[in-house]
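Project standup — Tuesday

K.O.: blocked on the structure for the chain from last sprint. Re-posting the sequence here as requested.
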Amino acid sequence: MKIAVAMSGGVDSSAAAAILKAAGHELVGFTMQLWNQRRGINVDENGEPLPSRCCSLDDVYDARRVAGELGFPFYVLNLEDDFERDVVQPFVQSYLNGETPIPCVACNSRLKFASLDRLAQSLGCEKVATGHYARVVHDTAANRYRLLRGRDERKDQTYFLWELTQAQLSHALFPLGEMSKAETREAAREADLSVAEKSESQEICFVPDGNYAGFIDRYLEAEGKTGDIPVRGEIVNTSGQLIGTHEGTHRYTIGQRRGLNVRPATTRTLPLYVVGIDSEHNRVVVGNEQELSRREFIAAGVNWVAFDEPSNAVRAEVRVRYRHTPAPATLEPLPHNRVRVVFDEPQRAVTPGQATVFYAADEVVGGGWIVK
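H.V.: unblocked you, prediction finished:
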C-alpha cells in the first residue's frame, strides 16, 4: 500500500515507519509544524527559550533524518495557525473557565488526523499511520471499524483517540498496537535509526516546562489580554467559609493537595483537596477526601465509536483521566449529544475539562468531555 506516515521525530513514529517500510509499503512522511516557536512565549525570566522535546525544530530535523535513513520522501506541514486556533486558544479559555483541559485529544482528531486524511487522499495514500499504541479492526458483520486498546496496557493511548470518526478509523493504521515499548525501541535499533535511544516526551508540546499557569500568563500578555489573567481570590471550604487566598484559579486543579494557601488550623484534622473551581466568583473550593469523590457526572460532545448513539442505558468501564483505572458505570444517554455517567462506586477527582472514555473489555465504546 501507499501510506502516509505521521512523524514526530520520536522513537515511536520512527519505528512505525521502519516496520511499514520493512513490510514493503510505499511511504510518504509528514511532520506537522504546530506551535509557532518564533512567538517567543516559551521563555524563562532571562528571555532564554525553554527546552522542549516535542514538536520542536529539533524534532522536525530528527523526523527528516529518519525519512532519509529509510529512503522515502518527507514533507513538513505548517499548521501553526490551525493549531493555535483549534488547540491552544481553547486550552487557555478552558483554564480561564475553571476547567483542566486535555488538549492532546482535540489535536489528534480535529487537527492531525483530519489534516493527514485530506493530504493522504490527495496523494493517493490508502492509510494514515501513526506511532500510537492502539489497534483498529474492521468488523465485517457490523460494517464498523472498532478501536481497541494497545496490547501493552501501560502504553495504551486510546484515551487520546476516542474522538476519531468511522471515516478516520477506516484510514488509520497503528503498527505499534501489538507491541510493547521495549519491542518498539528494539525495532528502531534493528533498523539502525538515529533516534533509537531518544528519550520520551511527556509534557504538553506547547508547555515544555509543565507550568500551565505560567504559559497562560505569558500567552495572555503576548495577546494583549493582561486583564484576563486570573487574579488573587478566596479559598473557601464546602460550607462557604473563607479559609485562605489563591493567586489565580488557573493555578489549581481538582484533586490538588499541595500548594494550598489555607490557614494552618484548617489542616490539623484532615488533609484538604481542591474539590471545585468557581471561576465566576474567582474562588477555589476545598474539602476532605470524601468530598473529593463523586458518584456521577455529565459528559458532552459524546462520540460513540462501537455503535451509533444508543437509545437505552449502556454498561461500560469508564476512565476519567489518562492514568485512571476504568471503573464500572452506567451510561444514560441525554439530549444534545450528552450522557450521564453513574459509577457503581464513587470515584476521586472527576475533573471538568478532562476527557472521559468508555470501554467494553479492550474496545472503546465511546467518549466525551466532562462538563459537570
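K.O.: great, moving the ticket to review. Residues 36 and 80 are 6 Å apart (CA to CA). Residues 295-370 form a domain with the Elongation Factor Tu (Ef-tu); domain 3 fold (CATH 2.40.30.10).
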